[in-house]
Please model this.
Amino acid sequence: MTTPAHISRRSLLGLAGLGAGALTLGTAGCGSGGQGASNAAAGIDVWCLKDDVQNKIQQAAIDRFNATAKAKAKITAYDNDPYKQKLRIAMGSPQQPDVFFNWGGGSIRQYVQNDLLADLTPMLNGDPAFKAKFIPSVLDAGKIGDKYYGIPNRGMQPVIMFYSQQALDKAKVSAPPATWSELLSQVDRFKAAGITPFALAGSQAWTLLMWLEYLVDRIGGPAVFGGIAAGDRNGWRDPAITQALNAIIDLVKRGGFDSNFASVNYDGDVGAGTLFAQGKAAMHLMGSWEYTAQLDQHPAFVKDALRSAAFPAFEGGKGDAKAVVGNPTNYFSVTKRSRNVDSAKEFLKAMASDAYVDDWIANGDVPAITGLESKIAQSKDAQFGSFVYKMVQDASSFQLSWDQAIENKYAQPMLTNLQKVFLGQLDAKGFVDAMVALP
Amino acid sequence: MTTQTTGFQGGAPPSALSGQRRGPAPAAPGRASRPGSAYVLPATLFFLAFAVVPVIGVFVLSFTSWQGLGDPTFIGLDNWRRLVSDPGVLAATGTTFLLTALSWATQTPLAIAVGVWAAGRQRNRAVLSTIYFLPLLLSSGAIAIAWRAIVDPNFGIAKYLGPFIGFPDGNIIGNPKSALYVIVFVLIWQFVPFHSLIYQAAARNIPAMLYDAATIDGATRWHAFWFVTLPQLKNTIITSSTIMIVGSLTYFETILLLTQGGPGDATVTLPYLMYQGAFNNYEMGFAATVAAVIVVLGTLVSLLIVRFSGFGRMRSTLEGL
Model:
């Protein structure tokens, strides 16, 4: 008997699943479920993250949908950290959710490659009015290849150069840096005033990545990483990468960050955000969620000092200074195996409904929906909301965070190697060589 | 060797000899009614289902490429080739052995000292021991999170303590040179109580007459510890060391919660590399290869300990008493 190249997953799991521990939990009970005709009674299982505030808004949308729909939707929520693993295990089994929350890009690419997701392109193209409601750069960030697999369902999360007006005043700096050389000269001004120029939660490598993302974008434009994300590993050899890494090494050497940045946390109220709010650091390059977090923990700081700016331009760089990186938004995707694909798609239409969008704006978020200028201008976080909205609308590109965009197996090595660059353990060439050499 | 001719079984106090007590004739060795093989069946089945079969599964998986979705594809020895050529694996192996060696070399003397001290019957020792053993009640997760707060350079004790131990900016956990020592320290704090408890029980089992005899011979307390207590603890030391060493080889939670392998890859051990491979990179095949290496290493090390310590001969330290 010749050994087939593919062994049956079930029979292998009989052996290996036990060893892989957690995997078993997800797959042991399989057998039921599976593909079948539309079955309204099965309902629509919507998986998302546990978040009291967000899920209230989500639940309201579901209640509105359930009032008329035959197949009722319900939320299954998981904590942030185990979510991706739980989803992964479920997607490898017949017990999949019907609709699930994700980050687009790398977070769903393998599901698409394994033909597990419903193509939403016909739905969007069949309803131009619906499609036109979403900001195109954000909707496109949910594409895999040339097809849509995700409908935006949350606020937009660009990475912003947050700064403290009080710290700027204290160091007699008139405005946040518009160019990289301005940024470097400000580093000295802030240090002279006894203020750390940039807060950095360096124990979490993803906070470091934001610097590289923006620098590479400003120096070489979005195509540099675009090629790498599409699978071209030699793309790391692009001179823009080396130049960006050298700029980072220079900034670290100049004391742009605290010497102990690698010990600093992001989560909780004793991390980089608190150093920033306490006036110990002047600026903080962070996702837009930093605003909501500061509003929650240091509301006085938000009112008196917290301001937002774009990442500075890089002299001689090819990139557009208005381009944005970050998490365009989160998405809902529909599984192909769902017994209610059509109802699930119908549910996704609620993501563009006025009631849903209004709830998000009231919550201080900025949904990826066109034509919200006046609504946001009237909201309680008008200043910040309008900044984010304009920033994204004006952006020539909105690049998904690299660790989300790149193939899963390269994300962790990329983060580790970048951390080594920040720590002075690797130079630019060492980083590039390490990334190209990955198996 | 206990001889049968004296008429009493090993373990009976010699004083029984003077009383000429005669018990029922002991069954000759080998003919004692012992549980049949059926008694072992449940444990054997359990061991097969939850230890042997999964390990075989891990080995099978190590010859495949599998993202956790769809079917695994056999790729022959690719994962194993990658394992030997990947500099990350070598570094992680080195870190694992360093962590294991440091854990053993620090925890064993401490645990013996605390355990022997706590074996005393004085009331203050009982009270203090209870406090010492408190970390036993805490989960690894809680301990790691607490320590994460303690070593924070801006808001934790590291800020105040750091300057005294050579870290003026409190950057202990973020320094690739010192991060592993933080892990070692937390492991000491977490696991010394458990091993102390084992040593306490063992030390209390040492017959008092040995100490009496040593005292008559003019032994000091130090002599008594060195020539009576330690030799009597020999089997306990081997047991505790095996638990410690095999435990350190596979230890993982504290690293995940405290450093996530960082800074850089300074605290990436083999078990953490396996976790990263499986649940960050979704390379189940390669992760299984790392797991297989851990299984082999763990088994080898414990076999070596048993082989060279004479533990396999199951000789009691009370023989001849």
